[in-house]
Write a structure and sequence with these properties.
mainly beta; six-stranded mixed β-sheet; 4 helices; 12 strands
Length: 191
């Protein structure tokens, strides 16, 4: 059977970061101490999950390079990391401001009402009243909240990412079922 996007003739192309099998954990902000340790600023909800990290991948000129980790110390959302074969500040400095990635397999599985932002980009979005309203192009992140940017032809619909608005995530058919607030879809589509 065809997916909702295919039935409506919408693009089924997935829009993802350049590393389809990795997700961005954060970036290396600065060095720490004189032994070549670096501070990784993480963009995650729970830094505790990463305090025992044994390896990480750094984006070096468009390619991921794997680094083995010797030790870590967690302080809020920053992880002080000692890397194997990097023992001096001078060796660590080329890593500053570089993005750090982990394989998608490091992420825990989520239920059918929760999702990782990167995984739903390209999903069809079906509202419980209006049916198929478009394809999720990206999730915009603002201080305090995130918004789904859904495209349908030349129109754009912005839907807050809120547990009350998400009915179901169907990963098999790449479909996101939503319950938009009354009047929201009409505001953008003029229905």
């Amino acid at each position: 059977s065809r997916s909702p996007k295919e039935r409506e003739g919408l693009s089924t192309k997935r829009i993802k970061n350049m590393y389809n099998d990795h997700y961005k954990l954060g970036f290396i902000d600065r060095t720490f101490g004189i032994k070549g340790e670096v501070v990784l600023v993480m963009d995650v909800d729970d830094g505790e999950r990463y305090k025992e990290l044994k390896e990480m991948w750094v984006d070096e000129n468009g390619e991921l390079k794997k680094y083995s980790i010797e030790n870590t110390r967690l302080k809020k959302m920053e992880l002080c990391v000692g890397l194997q074969n990097i023992k001096r500040i001078e060796d660590a400095e080329p890593l500053l401001k570089k993005s750090v990635y982990l394989p998608l397999s490091y992420l825990p599985a989520l239920g059918d009402k929760n999702f990782y932002f990167h995984e739903v980009v390209g999903f069809a979005v079906i509202d419980n009243v209006h049916g198929l309203i478009g394809v999720l192009e990206t999730i915009l992140q603002f201080p305090g909240h995130a918004v789904m940017q859904v495209k349908k032809e030349n129109a754009e619909i912005l839907i807050p990412v809120s547990p009350g608005f998400i009915d179901k995530v169907d990963r098999e058919t790449q479909t996101l079922y939503v319950n938009c607030p009354e009047g929201l879809v009409e505001l953008y589509l003029g229905d």
